[in-house]
Amino acid sequence: MGDWYRDFANSGLGSTLVRQLGLPRPAVLRRYEPGAPLLPGPAVVGTAGEGRLHGVLTRVLQDAGVPVLPAVDGDGERLAAVLLDATGGTSPADLAAAHAFLAPALRRLGPSGRVLVLGDPPSAAGSPTQAAARQALEGLVRSVAKELRDGATANLLLVPAGAEAAVPGPVRFFLSGRSAYVDGQVVPLTAADVPAGEHEQRPLAGEVAVVTGAARGIGAAIARALSRDGAHVVAVDVPAAGDKLAEVANEIGGTAFQLDITAPDAGQRLVAHLRERHGGVDVVVHNAGITRDKLLVNMDAARWSSVMAVNLQAQLDTTQALLDADGLLGSGARVICVSSQSGIAGNRGQTNYAASKAGVIGMVRAWAPAFAERGATINAVAPGFIVTEMTASMPLGTREIGSRVNSLQQGGLPVDVAETIAWLSQPSAAGVNGQVVRVCGQSFLGA
């Protein structure tokens, strides 16, 4: 399931040929490896406006051992990251400082570099002028993301006053290799109690995580990532996938639990299993999903209802069962739901699938306040074109177009989805709640 064109374009002969022909050259992305440094080189931190988070950003970098340059000069070494604290802006005139800092810094940005901008939520602005300045950052960041090359990404964090403690975890994610395929995204934070002393390499140590649809593909990658980060994983899938499910569970030292999540008693059976075997659950990943594609006018009722049952209703029913089970899903719990780019942009021949995945987003947003009251979070991840066994069977032309129509000019890998889910599962992600994070390389569809 490799990317033949990317590999060719980065070979000696291929690199020369694609340059001569003016063809795109997708970069080999920097992905997370346990023990690797947060960044492979220095970073620079600038301000535009009040810049109330400058000290927080500097401390995050220094604590990770990243050299922080005082300024950008013309002939220094390549930068691994460019961070702009644009909080406290009051008018569009403040954006001139953003341009003055970013323009020279981006010229120095190295391969797989990171650009991260932090601003205030436009919804909390005190005037139309202030709201305009805050909203302008979204257009700036999304455009910068489309201008970057060599696997570099740009993202925006919106940080309201009082949410400073929630900043370090998301900053580390967006600077690290975990976010390799997350590009051009806007993630609002909220004030939250973030536990101190999280283990850098095993942030989920001692926790219990449930992953549905874990027998193969993205689900198996999620199970591996959560296990690597310290969790005991309860891998769930249908009985027909029992052999593959057992292989995944044995590989990671987890537990296999065969369950049809659409069964009327599925939620109660899962609750009973978790209570009896583990005493509770800390992370729940609703990954299981199916497709039954057909144009709407040709779609029969069975195709529609089966997709809705697996992709949406099962998530609703299972989550409600966990919430109703006294003491099972408590403070600090994380629920992550797998949506899809199709649920945001739509897709021809996938009305049932797109509707179900859009429904997941609505569910997450509606449940977020109730989760916040428990000290828990619920979020969604929306993958774009991810290279799997299923996409490998697509016609070559369809597959190539699907994988190239994004800022990174390549399809993502199952591990890219898994890394984003693993981050949202961490205690340090407490300030992210009710959000949808696209893992799509900044897809041009629905962007």
Automatic annotation (TrEMBL):
Domain Ketoreductase: 207-389
InterPro entries per the UniProt record, alphabetical: KR_dom (IPR057326), NAD(P)-bd_dom_sf (IPR036291), Sc_DH/Rdtase_CS (IPR020904), SDR_fam (IPR002347)
GO MF annotation: an example: oxidoreductase activity, acting on the CH-OH group of donors, NAD or NADP as acceptor
Sequence similarity: Belongs to the short-chain dehydrogenases/reductases (SDR) family.
Name of this protein: 3-oxoacyl-[acyl-carrier protein] reductase
Species name: Geodermatophilus africanus
